[in-house]
């Protein structure tokens, strides 16, 4: 029997069951943490469970601890998390080494996570902002940290 992988978004346990609101023969998988869900499958219980498990467990890649990320210029995706567990995905990033790029103001790039930014046709290297800052209106302090990385998913094959 195939077991369900943890939620790809929050890591919590997921459950599979009948989706009673959709009528008989409707099944769904739902994360018990963030409530992420698959689409509803209508079929016999055995076939619906098999297909839902395939959908839920399919991953292009798994997030990896940031300490294992390449620092050789390889482009990767980053996961930035704040103290409220709000996660933001930064795509097409790399570890910037001095001399490997420039900010918009043309200062040499420091050693940090970076991504490309564009403005009015200009392209420059932009730092992935990992910092502590305070909202001037609410006074709430936010702390953002890069926690995980993953290889950039491969594009689908041409038809």
Plain-language structure description:
The protein has one helix and ten strands. It has 159 residues and is mainly beta. It folds into two domains: 14-57; 64-151, no CATH class. The strands form two sheets. Strands 4, 5, 6, 7, 8, 9 and 10 form a seven-stranded antiparallel sheet that branches. The radius of gyration is 21 Å and the shape is extended. The model is unreliable at 102-108 (pLDDT under 50).
Give a quick summary of the entry.
This protein is mainly β and 159 residues long.
What's the SSE pattern? EEEHEEEEEEE
Shape: extended
Helix content: under 10%
* Percent of residues in beta strands: 35-45%
Taking pLDDT < 50 over at least 5 consecutive residues as the criterion, the unreliable ranges are 102-108
Radius of gyration: 21 Å
Count of alpha/pi helices: 1
* DSSP E strands, number: 10
The main β sheet shows up as: 7 strands, antiparallel
The number of domains: 2
Q: Output mean pLDDT.
A: 74
* Alpha-beta classification: mainly beta
Distance between the termini: 33 Å
